[in-house]
Amino acid sequence: MKTGRDYKFWFCTGSQDLYGDECLKKVAEHSKIMVAELNKSGMFPYEIVWKPTLLTNAMIRQTFNEANADENCAGVITWMHTFSPAKSWILGLQEYRKPLLHLHTQFNQEIPYDTIDMDFMNENQSAHGDREYGHIVTRMGIERKVVVGHWSDKKVQEKVASWMRTAVGIMESSHIRVMRVADNMRNVAVTEGDKVEAQIKFGWEIDAYPVNEIAEAVAAVSEADTNALVEEYYSKYQIILEGRDEKEFRQHVAVQAQIELGFERFLEEKNYQAIVTHFGDLGALKQLPGLAIQRLMEKGYGFGGEGDWKTAAMVRLMKIMAAGVKDAKGTSFMEDYTYNLVPGKEGILQAHMLEVCPTIADGPIGIKVNPLSMGDREDPARLVFTSKEGPAVATSLIDLGNRFRLIINEVDCKKVEKPMPKLPVATAFWTPQPDLYTGAEAWILAGGAHHTAFSYDLTAEQMGDWAAAMGIEAVYIDKDTTIRQFKNELKWNSVFYR
């Protein structure tokens, strides 16, 4: 999935001109070695670019403004090799507008006990140089990520690499445009929200189109193009007829192929990266988009059901953040459906009417054509599969009227105990942490939606860092959650974020 930019991260080292040329030569040498070794490690999803040592107010200000102006710069990593007076950083920090990481490290890993002298002490002052810098960033109230440890440590590198994905999510958030096909499902509260405030906070553009304008784009797709995509479907997926006439089955599949092509062409022409539909307002569309939406999500588009533009944007955002993850397991729109409350086997069956992304599939993917009790259209074709096992994160962005809240739940995905042969949709089954009862109660207390943006490839920390950068509330539901503490946190947050 392409973002359209070749992102890089700048590495900026702080010092001052009182140390003399010989010391500053070593500072530059050390930072160059660090950047070269970090890039050679293979740990980072994006390149780190070395920048000359920052010594003065003017140099710092210029560098930060150059970072602002460089579209390929997704963030700056700062490190104080020596003592860099923090007042020198004020103007640059005031004008800086991109993600910031403070790497609290030092060039040497161990104190050189046998040879250490005052020259070494004067040249290697990160332990207090970084504290001076950290003080001013805190005093100025600037959001940043702090990572502590030796730069060669794999755990430190993993933390920086993880933050890079969040930083790209922050940068790309302002490029997300959501196309609403018709409007929200009538009388549903959670899919509503302040679209103007969302654009102010996140940079998202959320626009509505009459459903028949989209239907015209679908109708314009040629029969030849439609048939070619149907052939691709038949070569890629298992065809599960279940007694239906093959010719009639293929006609239903062709409707979804035409929808996929029409929707994708419309999205590309209008420059949208996410889409929402509503089964109650389908206009001239012959079927509720099912297989078509699943395929679009697989290509990197965000989606939300029943007009849920917040979840559609979050799915797109999380797909961007997870792009290029090694051995990725997938990211999708999801919905809570029904519980298993058998003691020791508790969990939530996740699905949707049709639209679950096949990136999360485990094993073969089939195509079925089955009736849909909602939508008042012909039987739609959809991809069916079960999801992978393993840890994942489910998020819900909600509008509380005076602020946004991101709810982040760590979940454990499992296989269902038995097959469900009569359920013709893609499914996942998970147990929220710390357990179903606490997790579900905390989710409800926080006002979480029934729709989620879900990923195996991102962490709660990454999503929380994104929320912090956006200046919105984030609450975590994980192995450490207790209801008493969670209620108190919600109360405290209501004061802080009002």
SSE arrangement:
Layout: E1 8-14, H1 21-40, E2 47-50, H2 57-69, E3 73-80, H3 90-95, E4 100-104, H4 118-123, H5 126-139, E5 145-148, H6 154-173, E6 177-181, H7 195-202, E7 205-209, H8 211-219, H9 223-236, E8 238-239, H10 246-270, E9 274-276, H11 291-298, E10 302-304, H12 309-322, E11 331-340, E12 347-351, E13 366-369, E14 381-384, E15 390-399, E16 404-414, E17 428-432, H13 436-446, E18 451-455, H14 460-470, E19 473-477, H15 483-496
Parallel strand pairs: 1-2, 1-3, 3-4, 4-5, 6-7, 6-9, 8-13, 9-10, 16-19
Antiparallel strand pairs: 11-12, 11-18, 12-17, 13-14, 15-16, 15-18, 16-17
Rg measurement, Å:
25 Å
In total, the number of strands is: 19
Shape: elongated
Which class best fits the helix and strand makeup? Answer: alpha/beta
Instruction: Give the overall pLDDT as a whole number.
Output: 95
What percent strand?
A: 15-25%
Q: How would you characterize the largest beta sheet?
A: 6 strands, antiparallel, barrel
Distance between the termini: 37 Å
Helix fraction, binned, reads: 25-40%
Unreliable segments (pLDDT under 50, ≥5 consecutive)? none
Strand order of the largest sheet: 11-12-17-16-15-18
Number of helices: 15
EC number: 5.3.1.4
Function: Catalyzes the conversion of L-arabinose to L-ribulose.
Keywords: Arabinose catabolism, Carbohydrate metabolism, Isomerase, Manganese, Metal-binding
Cofactor: Mn(2+)
